[in-house]
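We close this part of the discussion by returning to an individual protein. The sequence in question and its structure tokens are set out directly beneath this paragraph:
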Amino acid sequence: MTDSGVGFQVTATDFSAVGLAQLQHAAATAGIDDRVRTLEHDARTLIPLPDNAFDGVFAHMLLCMALSAEQILALASDIKRVLRPGGVFVYTVRHVGDAHYKTGIAHGDDIYEQGGFAVHFFSRALVDAVADGWDLTEVHSFEEGELPRRLWRVTQALPPRTSRPVGGKPAGPGRE
């Protein structure tokens, strides 16, 4: 593999140190470990990263963990904080059209447990609540795995910064 000097810098967060070690190993094997940083983090707490630090965030199945709607909205707000203006947030979640919705052990707040694993199933109203203050670009339905599982891939973006202070210079960090 040749490096043209173009590519993503990735900061991967997860609560699992084992998962992060596996990612580091895979990155090293691919020769891109200099582009991958890992950080052990529990999504129920504030993200320990600076404001306006990232152009994009991708979260596969994170938001449909056993998080309350309140915790999901708090996490989305914190993701908004770490994104730059115009930044994109893409996430996948299981939705209420899934065969496991309303089966297994009910924990309230559209959270159901199957085989020891609890899932928060997303209604379209919850997708819209997460998108409040964002530009909702796409809500794409797809199937994955056994049953099959029914998911949404949601793409939303922060509005680009457009304000200009007196003097005509673009607003920058701390200059709004």
Remarks:
- The helical segments are 17-29, 69-82, 124-130.
- Residues 164-176 have pLDDT under 50 and may be disordered.
- Residues 69-82 form the longest helix (14 residues).
